[in-house]
Specification:
The chain folds into three domains: about 60 residues, no CATH class; about 80 residues; about 170 residues, hpI Integrase, Chain A (Orthogonal Bundle), CATH 1.10.443.10. It is elongated, with a radius of gyration of 29 Å. The N and C termini lie far apart (about 95 Å). The protein has about 350 residues and is mainly alpha-helical. Keywords: DNA recombination, DNA-binding. InterPro entries: DNA_brk_join_enz, Integrase-like_cat_sf, Integrase_catalytic, Integrase_recombinase_N. This is Tyrosine-type recombinase/integrase.
């Protein structure tokens, strides 16, 4: 292969601003590779040519570029993180490192275009590329914390992440519970087209199980004499041993499982218990197909059956503490917030029985 073929080349050759820009080159093994950098985020020809030159230098002189990476704010933050690494949990370090690498790539590119990077520029850049507010908030907290530690050490005087106020975390919106009419429609359809799926629905509705817990349940986990379902630490999401009480309306429906071998999975292939565990999203996907067939929107999902069970039980005046234990929430305050999301605090009694003046 001719040596000049290894030289990086900027495309498009005619520098058309309407086309995708990239630098193509060959590695030592002869493989053709591409680098995009921030080429397609820049608006002027001059800025793109400067960024292209930086990419070409990164390809042809990686040692020098690596040395430059260690200069300035991004380098100081990187050094600080490596110093802290022995005292951090593995997942924590990986999370911080990922955030810092994203900032470092932007910072080095931005610093090559202008002498001084203005405060708040990176946060504004994250908004421009369309990241969710919660994602931006998380990245900001990590970077702000690292720079504050540099300030305490006297290595920085200002924090570029102080100017932009942290966005208030946007609360995730729960899937809606089903109404009584919707339950009737879904039950009728499932019993006709997929009766095993309706069995799965009952486990979510009465026991508040997560779909991934459901698929791992075995016959031996049903304690018929005590009318409880046992979830060991490897099955339960939070690695705790959990016992779920089986309500009376469900008991007659699960007696059919008593005749199967204890080591069989309750939900397996062929619509009945068996030795094979279903794949992680198998049941959820079957439920989604039925939802699509019946024209349900995206605000509903397989997990909506848990919300439906909790809401119906709460509206039937079952003590909140008992529902909290069955759901598995660690404290009552957290569970009360969950009930608010389900609109259980709709004040029906207040509306109906409020005394007239």
């Amino acid at each position: 292969m001719n040596k000049k073929n290894f030289a990086p080349t900027l495309f498009p050759l005619n520098r058309d601003m309407q086309k995708t820009w990239f630098v193509t080159y060959y590695d030592k093994a002869g493989r053709k590779l591409k680098k995009y950098g921030r080429l397609n985020h820049l608006q002027t020809l001059e800025e793109r040519l400067i960024e292209a030159e930086r990419l070409i230098q990164e390809i042809t002189a990686p040692d020098r570029i690596e040395k430059e990476r260690k200069i300035g704010l991004a380098g100081q933050m990187s050094d600080l993180l490596e110093y802290k690494r022995p005292f951090m949990r593995k997942k924590g370090y990986q999370s911080y490192s990922s955030v810092l690498k994203g900032f470092a790539r932007w910072y080095i590119s931005e610093a090559s275009l202008k002498k001084e990077v203005a405060q708040g520029d990176y946060i504004r850049y994250l908004h421009e590329i369309g990241l969710h507010k919660n994602t931006i908030r998380g990245k900001t907290m990590v970077l702000k914390g690292l720079v504050n530690q540099l300030i305490k050490k006297g290595l920085q005087t200002t924090n570029p992440f102080e100017e932009e106020p942290l966005q208030k975390k946007v609360k995730a919106q729960s899937k809606l519970p089903f109404t009584a009419n919707q339950v009737t429609r879904l039950k009728s359809y499932m019993l006709e087209h997929d009766s095993q799926l309706w069995d799965a629905v009952e486990f979510l509705y009465y026991l508040y199980l997560r779909p991934n817990e459901l698929r791992q349940l075995k016959i031996e986990d049903i304690m018929f004499e005590e009318w409880k379902v046992y979830l060991n630490g490897s099955v339960a999401k939070d690695a705790d041993v959990i016992y779920k009480a089986i309500p009376v309306p469900m008991r007659s429906h699960i007696l059919k499982y008593a005749s199967y071998p204890a080591n069989y999975y309750i939900f397996s292939e062929g619509g009945k218990p068996g030795a094979t565990m279903l794949s992680r999203d198998h049941i959820s996907k079957r439920h989604k197909k039925i939802m699509t067939a019946l024209n349900f929107g995206s605000r509903y999902s397989f997990y909506s059956w848990v919300h439906t069970g909790v809401k119906n039980a709460a509206m039937s005046n079952i003590p909140i503490k008992q529902l909290q234990l069955q759901k598995g929430h660690s404290d009552l305050k957290m569970f009360n917030e969950y009930l608010k999301d389900l609109r259980v605090d709709d004040c029906e009694q207040l509306i109906a029985d409020f005394p007239s003046i």
